[in-house]
Amino acid sequence: MHNVTLGHTLSNQFETIVIGAGPAGLTAGYSLSKAGREVLILEADPTYVGGISRTASYKGFLFDIGGHRFFSKSREIVDLWNEILPDDFIERPRLSRIYYRGKFYSYPLKAFEALRNLGLMQSTACVASFLYAKAFPIRNPKTFHQWVRNHFGERLFGIFFKTYTEKVWGMGCDDISADWAAQRIKGLDLWAAVTDGLRRSLGRRGGGDSRAKSLIESFRYPRRGPGMMWEAAAQKITAFGGQIEMDRKVVSLHFDELQKIWRVTALDGQGREYIYCARNVVSSAPMRDLMRAITPTPLSLLHARELKYRDFLTVVLIGRTEKELPDNWVYIHDPAVKVGRVQNFRSWSPEMLPDEDSTCLGLEYFCFEGDGLWAANDSELIDLAKHEIERVGLMRARDVVDATIVRQPKAYPVYDETYAENVATIRREIDLRYPGLHLVGRNGMHKYDNQDHAMMTGMLTALNIIAGQTIYDVWQVNEDAEYGEQGVSGVKEALASLRHTPSRAA
Fold first, then answer.
1. pLDDT band at residue 423 under the 50/70/90 scheme
2. Structural domain contains residue 95
3. pLDDT of 112 strictly over 80
């Protein structure tokens, strides 16, 4: 079973306290402890490290919460992966498809297959729609719909973006900020995708470091899931002298303005209280929750309360099937079913399953904590998943012999029309009123980052703490600096470009 339970007799005074043992928090803790700095990591989960990148288990079956490819163009991050987990990576083919209105499309697309599935009339209409959008773009697009329409045309937006995006976010594409599209799919150019699709249709491999991440053909993966990475990181942190406390939910942070010291209060599952002090706090906790916990009360608390999150749950179906399933995952764009994505854990790694004959699929349902899907009992969710997996055609309901549910709150920070202003206001106050408070990671910064971007924010924050000053502006990671898109040869230049400049939020 993949779990970590660490306990220590602690003094309550530290140089740095890290809230959250996910990729960002553990990377910060690893970098600090390796440098010989005093660090304590507080994790609310009583069992697992890794956050959303953990590996959960059930009766010998292992499953990834959301799917985590280990691919990065940052040499620093790749080197860190190799340093922490040197002997347990396997190379996996990247195979995925899109299911739309009863048909499967390879993703990345194969041009001739897409043409056959869509039909000549629909394909022609897609091209005409794209050309029209290029000729008459919407100026200064504000919404996800407008941004995608400008880049791909209205027809392709409706087929390959609208339904899936609305499943993920639970809101209309006109209510989602264009920032999300610009951050997540800006590297994908339609002509590049078509050219790549033609190569695939002809059996040729595209390549080159300039290709978008969404077009990669293989990736590395820990042989027993991403939790291996974070369990190894936790063990190395303690070996370096750092400390990790599980089952410690941070409930309040008080800043002493005279001594410039943070007092952090945490509770365990039994309700026992623990108080720690530190000059630096590195938080990967959801920004909304963090600001609610701070005293003196932040002036930006009302802005923090406006931040929203999208949750999801995975229904894991276990059984035996004669169908060959080579996919890592299948994106379900069809509006006739509620499931948004299906993971095939054997294709991630054969070692995720305890035998050679079983099939283990994870059906991901996006929801809001407390809504109908989230609150449904397990038997209702399992029945829904069995019905939908048969309707999609990946497995027969009668072939399912066992199942379990994993719920993941606050999986995605929501990019609605007010999020940017809210985050900017919170950043300004932290810069002015709360020295020593550092935000990292996806939820900590309210940025829908990949695992490697979250790790980079933790690494750069640790470097700032070690230097005793803000050398790197972590808010530029995966934004203007685009460290992950510059390739190995550009990493040093990319890091140099992250040197601190006055905050845009100021």
1. very high
2. no
3. no
